[in-house]
Design a protein that fits this description.
With 237 residues, the protein is an all-alpha fold. Helices cover 89% and strands 0% of the residues. It is elongated, with a radius of gyration of 31 Å. It starts with a helix and ends with a helix.
């Protein structure tokens, strides 16, 4: 009898040891999975941020160009306040330059929100806002203004060179206005076709060209990470 009790106690102790060993192993595996997921998360977010660098450089270039454009034109219209049409032309180009600066700054601010400590969904929401702006709203803003802004730009440039086209060559100004109207009509027609058939190759090409390849690449990295996290959650259940 004593030997049987000893054997039973030994078996009980062995089972307890095995149970404890499994618990320790489970904890270690869970920690390893957590570290692996964190490493993958950091890697994908880093790659997403790296993919956005071409866009960041382009936005900084846009901002610097806007500053370079704003300075001489604000100087111009301040010096021509006594000539209404030249002052208005200078103010319009100055406003366009400020729009470029503000737009670039806003997009850069969104990109800066991408951080390792934030959930993937939140980062995707940030990129979605950036993508929506570049693909849907910015084309309208720059498309309409781009069809028109070159007229006041030329008026200012020629006036700075000593030739006031508005006064000395009104026919040329009318020709410029006609071309601007045609350009604007063409742009509106393009947008109408895109809105009418949003799934057409024209709409897709237009969206892709405005979204930027670097933004699309960053989005794919985050999609890969999201898919991996979903698989981990499924395996955990």
């Amino acid at each position: 009898m004593p030997s049987i009790l000893i054997q039973q106690r030994g078996s009980t102790m062995n089972l307890e040891e095995i149970k404890n060993a499994w618990e320790i192993l489970d904890k270690r595996l869970a920690e390893q999975n957590r570290l692996a997921l964190q490493t993958l998360t950091d890697n994908r977010i880093d790659r997403a941020k790296s993919a956005l660098w071409p866009l960041v450089f382009a936005l900084w270039a846009q901002m610097l160009f806007g500053v370079a454009l704003a300075i001489p034109f604000v100087t111009f219209w301040l010096r021509h306040l006594d000539t209404f049409h030249l002052a208005i032309a200078g103010i319009l180009v100055h406003a366009y330059a400020l729009m470029m600066i503000i737009d670039a700054g806003s997009q850069l601010a969104l990109i800066r929100l991408i951080d390792h400590g934030k959930p993937v969904l939140e980062i995707q929401t940030t990129l979605a806002k950036l993508r929506d702006w570049r693909a849907r709203k910015a084309p309208w803003l720059y498309g309409i203004t781009g069809c028109l802004i070159w007229i006041p730009f030329l008026l200012v440039v020629f006036a700075a060179l000593g030739a006031d086209l508005w006064v000395k060559a009104p026919t040329v100004v009318n020709w410029l206005l006609l071309n601007a109207a045609i350009s604007l009509a063409g742009f509106c027609l393009l947008q109408w076709l895109i809105l009418r058939k949003p799934r057409s190759w024209l709409a897709r090409s237009f969206d892709e060209s405005n979204t930027s390849k670097s933004l699309i690449k960053a989005w794919k990295f985050l999609e890969e990470l999201e898919q991996f996290q979903k698989e981990e959650e499924t395996d955990g259940k």
